[in-house]
User: Fold these one by one.
Assistant:
Number 1:
Amino acid sequence: MSTALVTIVSGRHTHLRRQREWVAVQSDPPLSHVVVSMGDPQIEGVLALHPGIPTELVALPAAAELPLAAARNAGVARAAHLGAESVVLLDVDCLPHRDVLRDYRGALVRLTGRRAVVSGRVRYLPEGMTEGDYTADGVARLGRDHAARVLPPPGELREADPRMLWSLSMATTVQTWDAAGGFDERYVGYGGEDTDFGQRLAAAGGGLWWLGGATVHHQYHPTQSPPVQHAAAIARNANLFRATWGFDPMEGWLHALEERGVLARDGAQWHLVEPRSNSGS
């Protein structure tokens, strides 16, 4: 089964450079590393640092908000055009263990005949690592598992709730991707598009599977929890999701933003709370 690796990116050039170093030593190399640039003309220079990796660059125009759903669709479409039968989606922050593509490909072969998305192990790396720490031994020592993710024993597959689908690291066949219809490109900016794809997968008779393997190591970057800076997009995408599927996605974030007075709910609709003026009379 031929497999392409798809990564979408805007900025994060150091993360992409490191990821490519790990892609170069995969035990089961990809048909191609399809890199989708979301309005970032400097990505081509980062890719040139590793000319030995078969690579396809898909350049999307700059937009006011990152077109995450459209970028993933563009990447998978290019992979399919190249002849890939399956795809691994990997966020630019993630460093793939040398057997990630082998593990994912093997899991998809075992699930032949099913419409399945497989999600492997994700370990989070701490702040303050030096370049010398980014070795197989270094990341194995420093990485920590995500508390919300199920971790089956090595090599085992365990069926999961499609609402837990997260495109950070996942694999599927092009046939399953097409049956689900890919990502809904009405989702723009941060939040909701992964959960929506999980519902599209389920509606097409497919399912999510956790894999004990396909380990990736997530490189540190600053974050906010809840992501206040993305509140407007989260509200807009949550409203779209609810109108489509009848329930809220991202409930933890929505309620945390509500508690902070950043978002408010009016009936079934979430909206951004306009800040009050502190000016006196």
Note: The chain has two domains: 3-218, 228-272.
Number 2:
Amino acid sequence: MSKQKPIHIISFLLLFVFAILPLILGFGFALAYSFGLIGGLNQGFTLDNWSALFENNDVVISFLYSGWLAIASLTLSVVISMAIAIFFHKKFSKGIYSYLVYMPLAFPSIVAAFFFAQFLGNSGILSRICYQLGIIDNIQSFPNLVNDQYSFGIIVAQFFLSLPFFTLLYTGLYQTERIDDYTQLANSLGAKNRQSIFRISIPILLKKSFPNIVMYFIFKIGAYEVPLLLGRSTPETVSVLAVRKLQKFNLYDIPQGYAVAVIYTIIILSLLMLVLKTNKNEYDI
């Protein structure tokens, strides 16, 4: 115990210096800048930057829009990957499918965004395929699925990036949690396949993957490359809005950008606390 104690202290110090301290300093800097305590135009403590930020509904719409995109792509990923794990888990445990599922994970976000911009645009690959098959009269008549009002391109790209992760997660959980044994036991006691899926398989997978879903939601709500390349100029996601304000030549917009970062950090920390509390309650049980 005496030998392990210095190791624990050193590990905590390294974690604090290289992980926790930069976050605290960054958050403090953004908070001070948003209140006018530092910066090129600082004149002391003021709430003008925050009031200017909320003069219109852009920041509220931005957060709601980012949350909606994250929820939409995550819902598709979770539902489809869970169905794959329940019905095709044996195919993904070995063979070619177990290797192919890793391929989308090798695509950086910006590469996936460029790919779907070329694939889904009204003059892209999909429109040309439809034209060659005679589905549309000309390439220009193909609906633009990029920079569209429904954010179809963003949702598809984020779905493409998150589907393999949840497929691997749920196929692994299906085996480690021995769901097959539970479903067979339920079927032997008279339960139908549908009852076994909705009352055993899905609840277990959702409960075990809830922290991962929340963590991936945090990652998706702060995505930058995909919404920047595939989204419209309005509404903007949180990250695009913050970067735009921070990089504008108007110095009065910079404190507002830091204010957006502060709000985002508070929301993320709240979600992280939710995940930690959920895990703690699970272990306590």
Note: The first helix runs from residue 4 to 34.
Number 3:
Amino acid sequence: MTRRKVKLAFIVNNSSRKNNLPKRKRGLFKKAYEIFTLCGINAGAIIYSPYDPTPEVWPSVEGYEPSDYYFLELAEIDRHNNMFNQQEFVQQRITKADKLLLKKKKDNREVNLMEDMYRFLQIGQLTILAGVHTKPALARDLNDLGYLVDMYLNSRNRLILILEGGSDVEIGESL
């Protein structure tokens, strides 16, 4: 039986949530042990459960105390520096995903404009299909395309100037 990716969401069914808790605790304690063993880092875990009045501690209450003292010795701001709840975690992931989406949209737009620029340069004329763009979008696209064509031509002219020896910049240096 293959393992499948678990959807991270609150388990609504109370009995299913209660049955999953011990398995998840064992997995968490196993990961803490692996970090402790493989990396040589003092690690510990405390789990408070609504089903058990006493918290579970790994490796043990006595073994956890040095890590606890180290944590308590940290300044308040350092203790809470990287701590966040599930809502903050999800919000952080959403923000990162939005930034990545904007970056990908920008990259795709630049690639499309570059392809259009090369195609238009090969044809030698601009051909616009009627009804594909609204006028403001068309004007923005043409302005962006014009800017890219100017940048491309400027870089080519500069390269020609360098190759002809009319510039102080050597070949291989950053343009």
Note: The chain has two domains: 14-83, 97-164.
